[in-house]
Specification:
0% strand; 111 residues; mainly alpha
Amino acid sequence: MMKLTKFDAAEYLDNEEVIAEYLNAALEDDNPNVFLTAVRDVAKARGMTELAKNAGLGRESLYKALTPGAKPRYDTILKVIRALGVELKTVPLQSKTFPTGHVKGFADATR
């Protein structure tokens, strides 16, 4: 009989590049719990107590904020992300195109 162990993503999150890719993949999912779970996995890999301290949060507050179904404040997530050594950025969607002149006068104002 084969014994299976539970997969723990935290065991593989050992550098900033892997962490960034993992979080980016989680952000692609429409379910916000996927991202919270990914941030929790990274927090676990880095050490919850140390991360909470670096983010300026209590350890229990951090656990609570990263629980699936939680609705953490934006500033809390931003503090945690920065304490993890990564940042969130936006990029244009490839599938959406906007007509030229969509933001009237924007091109002229930036010249």
